Automatic annotation (TrEMBL):
The keyword Hydrolase applies. This is GDSL-like Lipase/Acylhydrolase family protein. The keyword Hydrolase applies. Keywords: Disulfide bond, Hydrolase. GO terms for molecular function: triacylglycerol lipase activity. Residues 212-341 form the Ricin B lectin domain. Gene3D superfamilies: 2.80.10.50, SGNH hydrolase (3.40.50.1110).
Length: 342
């Protein structure tokens, strides 16, 4: 997702982390995670609290026992129950610590994947009825604590738990691994489909929160827009000047202010060959996170490619439909004015 929107990603997530590992206690030789948050951050996603209440530890221990394993570990239900009343506050403390480090950041609290079906289990999720009921209780209380923390702090709730119902470890289209995953996989952790689902959900939240927007870029040349030729999606399809028509070929998703990619038809605006010279053409290309695909808004509604230091440009200020756009030394002319229009 970060590659697709052109975000600079800092990922300090770590398996087994508790709220204390985010706030005050190092983990595996690393400092508390909040120290990675800088004042430049504009969006921070957080999923936390599950290890405070031994969510994965307990479901793995129970699955081990019921599945006939040995050295399965213990589950302290009383300790788990004692922790829950404080959990929303702990998650809220994480949000406030992030805001202290990055006052302009929008914080998104993402709930955990749904691991179990609403009733029953399956062969690869070996739990008794009582164990499954207890784990469902942890999941629902964890989601409630996260929602309460979001309400109390004004963070945005991203309800992955709800979105992943029907994609549990026993489903025909799982988003998480079962207790008996393929080699190299981790029990009760997300698979590729789950990560795609989570990324899509977070990306929708970013749009709703104003971190990204989908617009038409209207040229300073009257009546013309930045357009993907014939709505093509093949790599190398020219991006051109064309009469504004409101089609998907002229709808671009970008990150206002922060900069990133300009994305249309699930591809990114790209400087051909990563070029930096005047008159290098621009095209549509698979999003790849390179400097050739990064754009920031500049003076006079310009779109600047930082790698080259040049602006998106209509060659010779032409008014002819089908003219392929280029990069050119920024000059403040109408040929370089691209006004985002919802």
């Amino acid at each position: 997702m970060a590659r697709d929107i052109g975000a600079n990603l800092t990922d300090v997530s770590c398996s087994g982390a508790t709220t204390a590992n985010v706030l005050t206690a190092g983990q595996s030789g690393q400092p508390p995670q909040v120290r990675a948050v800088t004042s430049a951050a504009r969006a921070v996603t957080v999923t936390i609290g599950g290890n405070d209440v031994d969510y994965l530890g307990s479901i793995n221990a129970y699955s081990c026992r019921t599945g006939g394993g040995t050295d399965c570990g213990t589950v302290d239900r009383e300790a788990i129950d004692r922790t829950f009343p404080a959990l929303a506050g702990r998650i809220g403390d994480v949000v406030e610590a992030v805001r202290a480090a990055a006052p302009q950041a929008h914080v998104y609290l993402v709930t955990y994947f749904t691991l179990l079906p609403a009733s029953g289990v399956c062969a690869n999720v070996p739990l008794t009825e009582d164990q499954a009921a207890f784990e469902r209780g942890i999941a629902s209380r964890l989601a409630e604590a996260t929602a309460a923390a979001a309400t109390a702090t004004g963070a945005t709730l991203v309800d992955l738990a709800a979105a992943s119902r029907g994609h549990d470890a026993c489903s025909a289209s799982p988003w998480v691994e079962s207790y008996r995953p393929a080699p190299g996989r981790v029990t009760y952790h997300p698979d590729e489909a789950g990560m795609r689902g989570a990324a899509n959900l977070v990306q929708s939240a970013l749009r709703a929160g104003g971190q990204t927007a989908t617009v038409t870029f209207r040229s300073g040349i009257a009546g013309k827009c930045a357009d993907v030729r014939r709505s093509g999606t093949a790599d190398g399809t020219p991006v051109q000047l064309y009469t504004c028509n409101g089609t998907g070929a002229q709808r671009w998703t970008y990150a206002p202010g922060a900069g990133g990619t300009l994305k249309a038809l699930d591809r990114c605006l790209d400087v051909s060959g990563g070029g930096t010279a005047d008159r290098t053409k621009v095209q549509l290309w698979t999003c790849n996170g390179t400097g050739a695909q990064r754009w920031v808004t500049g003076p006079d509604s310009s779109l600047v490619n930082p790698q080259s230091g040049r602006c998106l440009d209509d060659p010779g200020s032409t008014t002819e439909d089908g003219t392929q756009l280029q990069i050119y030394e920024c000059n403040g002319s109408a040929a370089q004015r691209w006004t985002p229009t919802p």
